[in-house]
Amino acid sequence: MTATGPVTGAVTGPATGPSTETAPVVGAEALRQRAVDALRTARERTALLTGCVEDPDLTAQHSPLMSPLVWDLTHIGNQEEQWLLRTVGGREALRPDIDKVYDAFEHPRAERPSLPLLPPAEARGYVADVRSRVLDVLESTPLTGGRLIDAGFAFGMIAQHEQQHDETMLITHQLRRGPAALTAPPPPPAPADAAGLPAEVLVPGGPFLMGTSTEPWSLDNERPGHTREVPGFFIDTVPVGNGAYTRFIEDGGYEDARWWAPEGWAYLREHGLAAPLFWQRDGRTWLRRRFGVTEPVPADEPVLHVSWYEADAYARWAGRRLPTEAEWEKAARHDPATGRSRRYPWGDADPSPELANLGQRHLRPAPVGSYPAGASPLGVRQLMGDVWEWTSSEFLPYPGFAAFPYREYSEVFFGDGYRVLRGGCFAVDPVACRGTFRNWDHPIRRQIFSGFRTARDATPEAV
């Protein structure tokens, strides 16, 4: 599918002028070190996620929605071999015999346990062998001379790919039954001003730069940067919390068809949904299961494990709506004082622990109102990290989109009812999270680390 018009908001033309977007300037050796660090960080996380359980848990399928953990492990290595050893490095194939087994488009997840998968020890040996050879390739590869290697793109792409599968494996850990296998400290408490924040923030209407043409490791669906005209709107200062969502439940939100899209209402009735995934009622108390631990649902955390249909129904019940993807990105990136789109809500600096809850440092979202240092210029908080945020928009290409380096990353998913999620979550590594980064999934999905915030149109008087 190719772009035939605007995704959301009006496209007014290509991005022009040096002030619309800042291109990071990094030397060759710093780029090489950045690639090494990104690959190493991803592999350390992969080792944690696959090393904290015994082999039977690695080879089992814990949900038909997910692959066995050992499939993800070997798929990570196989993609790294195909792109970095064979394509970039021109090296001879190590294991061409397994390419089809670990092709995500050849085999749906539900079928993967029946494939001739490498056993855990062999899988670990394979991915380690690939990585040692990849580091040699990285050392000898000039990071200029073609889009695939410019600024180390291919190495960054593979680091992001591994981190995305690490997030997938963390979802599998959440679905897995049995005692807790992962632990992490809780996030910091909410800052003192969290309770007094305004409910919503006005984002003035006008043009802004959406997407990017300069971010070196951005993926094809984030490109190209283009000017988007967005009318003024209000957006929640913080994500919708469990306390607010509980009021929707208690008010009969799951029993009233008025709030639900017809497909969502049919799915709810067919599957008997009555609360977010992993919630259960104990008397008058709501409990949740989180990585093998059952605990009371914390009222002050962003709601988690809700589908697009649930998010949309809550927004309707509250007299609001989900933001469009363009609205979300404008709230997250646009600086009204300069007219420039930032890399992140707080500016152009890479994420740090003071700015956002990313990188699996905590196995849960931080309380609503957290990370004031990471707020957008207009004061919107937690736009990065904590929970993926559903938007109202379908996943479509930007005008001028070109698939790179392969169609199957984005192009084959455009349309077909996929909805866009933005902002990352606590399970996302910073290498795979930017103000322009786009995630997408079916509107019924609840096992992902998804939440939302709401929006409403601004009246002419407000603007």
Structural class: alpha+beta
Q: Major sheet: size, sense and barrel closure?
A: 4 strands, mixed
Assign the CATH superfamily of the largest domain. Answer: paralog of FGE (formylglycine-generating enzyme)
Question: Low-confidence parts, pLDDT < 50 over ≥5 residues?
Answer: 1-8, 13-19
- Amino-to-carboxy terminus distance: 36 Å
Instruction: Please state the average pLDDT score.
Output: 94
Helical fraction equals 25-40%
Structure, briefly:
The chain is α+β, with helices and mostly antiparallel strands and about 475 residues long.
Tell me what the structure shows.
- The protein has 463 residues and is α+β, with helices and mostly antiparallel strands.
- Helix content is 28%, strand content 13%.
- The protein has two domains: 10-24 and 187-242 and 309-457, paralog of FGE (formylglycine-generating enzyme); 53-175, no CATH class.
- The protein has nine helices and 15 strands.
- A four-stranded mixed sheet has the order 13-12-11-14. A three-stranded antiparallel sheet has the order 1-4-3, with helices on one face.
Summarize the topology.
Elements: E1 10-14, H1 28-51, H2 55-59, H3 69-88, H4 120-140, H5 153-175, E2 200-203, E3 206-210, E4 226-230, E5 233-236, H6 242-250, H7 262-271, E6 279-282, E7 285-290, E8 293-296, H8 308-317, H9 325-333, E9 334-335, E10 340-341, E11 388-394, E12 419-422, E13 439-441, E14 450-451, E15 455-457
